[in-house]
Amino acid sequence: MDSHSASSASATPGLTQWGWGSGPLAGWAAPALFVALGYYLAARVGFAFTLQPYPISTLWPPNALLLAALLLAPTRAWWWLLAAALPAHLLVQLESGVPVAMVLGWYVSNCSEALIGAGLVRAFVPWPLRLDSLRNAGIFLFCGAFVGPLLSSFLDAALVSLIGWGERGYWDLVATRIFSNTLAALTVAPLILTWASVDVSRLRAAPLARYAEGAVLFTGLLATCMVVFDLPQIDPHTAPALFYAPLPFLVWAALRFGPAGTAGAIAAVVVATIFGTVNGLGPFAGSTPQETALEMQLFLSAVAVPMLLLAVVLDERGRVELDAREQRMQLTHLSRVAMLGELSGGIAHELNQPLTAILSNAQAAQHLIANKSADPEILVEILRDIIAADQRAGEVIRRLRTLFKRGETQFQRLDANELVDEVLGIVHGDLMTRSVEVVPEFASALLMVHGDRVELEQVMLNLVINACDAMAGIAPEQRRLTIRTRSIEVEDGAVQISFGDCGTGFTPEQYAKLFEPFYTTKPRGLGLGLSISRAIIRAHHGRLWGSSIPGKGASFHMVLPALSTRGGSAVR
Amino acid sequence: MPYVAIVDDEEPVRKALKRLLRASGLEAESYASGREFLDASVLREPDCVLLDLHMPRMSGLQVLRALKAAHRTLPVVVITAHDAPETRDQCLAAGATAYLRKPLEEHELIDTITAALGARTR
User: Fold this and answer.
1) Higher-confidence residue: A18 or A444?
2) pTM higher than 0.80 for the full model?
3) Do A382 and B19 touch (CB under 8 A)?
């Protein structure tokens, strides 16, 4: 999985597969079951993370699980999910011998935390919430992981005091609950929210190397956490430095595995740290249970918040870049298609020629057969010519299809002479109808270049069409386009391809604007050809420029770095 | 047998048209360029010319103008794979008898040639 698939904007199978639309009984059964089971297990985890002998849970995940469930569900299903948690709540709390009034009181306060958090988030972000933008993540962290736990902690402590369960004071209870619930909301809820929107098909399609990288990351992170947090008390002077040991792994997760990977990594750090602390190990052990819990919760919250935000920001930026790349690709394709539209007359010429040969040959054969004067050898010859003409028409269509197609850039080893030949094949009809004579001056044994065939042909096509347009105003017998290829033997080598026309040329003032988008001297031009051509050549680490003697003609030159003889591209 | 000269730079087209005209009972010869045709036509004047419009170096239009300049009034049927209204007018103005688009329909071609030959004999 790459950093973008974690929160794919278009596909959210995790959010939609529950079929919320199909009504309470059929479609809502699965989520309710998930919530009930999850709530029960989360409560057991909460109990396991209690600092003995005092009943202070350092991390109370059931509320965070409820919060995540509400955020993933449409508002009309909330009552159903909260109701689904009740049996699990009763089961787990009654097992631990808590009075019924207190059990019900905690159910109310637990639900209130999830409701406050989810309600506030929903007020700002429509369903479904995705942690894929800084705005969404910020709203979630503030409303869900801060305001929700804060407000519900007052209610929780009030209920405990009212019912008279335990011996601790009101504010002591408030403080304990806030941090325990906040840490859970920071850890558990993002884990559920991010993984619920992971595109499973993309996850499956990820290459093995990605899985290996993930395995190395999580193994390294767990090993580091175990050394730092799960070994007997270490020297207090070196302890602060050790806190930073998991950081590189968390940054790695944020950079490479998106919000979902980071939420997973944070959860691993939290579990490892709490496991050590509740077992009297690691740097937090040694103080009173309250102090120990508070120090650890503050540390983990301080790690979780920036890491989660970092992952979300990186993910968002990556997606913006991806969108921009997609748009550039679309624009390049559009301009190519527009250019082929300009060539349509020439293309019709190219197809009509073989069609004429096919039709006239076939009709001649009909006559020969009808007159019974058909020599089999002549018929064989006619059929051979028909096949050849048909193949030629097929070749015209093949060339066009390649250029019409929209696809990812594919870099490969290319011969510039071959590319120019291919381009001249495409524009042959236009050159003919516009009476432009091509003078090829190709260097033999040209160095190979590394590039995308279609994009480089697009640039050459653009330069040829521009040259033809520039010569439209001069006498047909003077319209000459010289195409020169040559190897440049400097440093790692390069290949230069030049297109020189005898048209009107351009002035220095015109040249200054020539490569700007939407600048055109043609009556029906878009003014994108040269700016896109230059972008393509730059993406090939090459250069595209023009030179002109006004009134005598213009030349455009493209230089592409040669493929190094060592096998790789000479470009860096 | 009327003699038709075919002028087209494309060898497969030239060959196919020559076959078709011969199979239709006409005498046909083909030339790869306007210059080649102009040189040969001095020695033997055809009864009709099938002249391709877009050819390198010397276009069909230039051939028409050369014929006109030499005061030769041959019936010329211009054929083109690239149809543009302005070229049609230019050709007719330069003295072409008819203007046909490729691919050529046999009946239309033969009818046009027959009409051109008839105009010449009148």
Assistant:
1) A444
2) no
3) yes
ipTM: 0.94
Residue A416's CB is within 10 A of a number of other CB atoms, namely 25
The closest CB to that of A433, out of B20, B82, B105, belongs to B82
A358 touching B, CB under 8 A? yes
Which residues are within 8 A (CB) of A488 and not within 5 positions of it... i.e. 6 or more apart?
A494, A495, A496, A559, A562
Q: A394 burial class (0-12, 13-18, 19+ CB within 10 angstroms)? A: exposed
* Lowest model confidence (mean pLDDT) among A199-203, A413-417, A449-453: A199-203
Residue B49 is inside which H or E element, if any? strand B48-52
pLDDT tens figures, A114-140: 999 999 999 999 988 889 899 999 999
Q: Within 10 Å of residue A42's Cβ, how many Cβ atoms?
A: 24
Percent of chain B exceeding pLDDT 70 equals 98
Say how many C-beta atoms besides its own lie within 10 A of residue A467's C-beta.
26
pLDDT (tens digit, 9 = 90+) per residue, A531-542? 999 999 999 999
Question: Does A367 contact B57 at a Cβ distance shorter than 8 Å?
Answer: no
pLDDT of res. A162:
86
Q: Is A478 on the interface with B (CB under 8 A)?
A: no
For chain B, the straight-line distance linking the first and the last C-alpha, in angstroms and rounded, comes to: 17
In this structure, which amino acid lies at residue A307?
M
- What is the per-residue DSSP string for A261-312? HHHHHHHHHHHHHHHHHHTT-STTTTS-HHHHHHHHHHHHHHHHHHHHHHHH
Residues 38-97 of chain B with CB under 8 A from chain A are: 54-57, 59, 62, 81-84
